[in-house]
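Human: Note token order:
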Amino acid sequence: MTTDTSTSPAPTQRERRPGRGAKGGRRIGSHAFLVLMALYFVVPLWFLVVGSTKTNSGLFVGSGGALWFNDDFSLVDNIRGLFEHQGGIYWIWLRNSFIYALAGGIGATVLAILAGYGLAKYHFKGRTAYFTVLLGSVMVPLTALTIPTFVLLSDIGLINTMWAVILPSLLSPIGVYLVRVYSQEAIPSEMLDAGRVDGAGEVRLFVQVALPLLRPAIVTVLLLTTVFSWNNFFLPLAVLRDTDLLPVTVGLNQWQALSNAGAGGEQVWNLIVTGAFVSIIPLIAAFLGLQKYWQGGLSLGSIK
């Protein structure tokens, strides 16, 4: 008996050590993978930061290389040139991007809240079929819808107007899906039933009970739809002709085409890089300022 008791802990320790080693190896591998993914996303942003401080020639033959600063620091000159080039048209493109992003983001969020809440909390005929179609539409690439959207907008005479960009942006299937999932988890049906017993109408229940509980989902969907509208490129490129209606994305693409062609000796690569850097500052500020809301909304949606 004594011999068995004294030797029993040793095999247990030997069994645990390989497990800890394998677990530690998996952690190192996962951490290395996360570092690589972080670099994959951070390096382009870092290139924008560094490139916006360089002159037009310094972007290609500078002393610091592609990912480091040159000896001359031209950020202020680039920003001044950006807002003065072609009569300050970058201001107009920036204003247009704000209009498209806010109108599309707010409108898509309102529609997503109404549709997602209805699908989650009301039972009606065809609800499952509607939601199945909604999930299927998430899988359709938006570029495949650009030509049909162009034909539809052309038939109703909205080509080359702001409505040609805003109206298609109001539909967000992924936003409806997130609100529906969040509504199921965050709004107890018993709470709504108790409100109905007390005499509250459906509108009052939605405004006073559901909306406060949906705050993380609202912020998440608002950020996602606003960023999508801000970065929208292919649709404005197809439906807009007037330079004064272009968003920043398409406007910078025009400058890039002119620089590639060398039309009129115009090479404005430094302004293009600086314009791209300036255009992402509002999005970064919005994500950092509202991160405590959208992180909660995304995590609940991922669990489901």
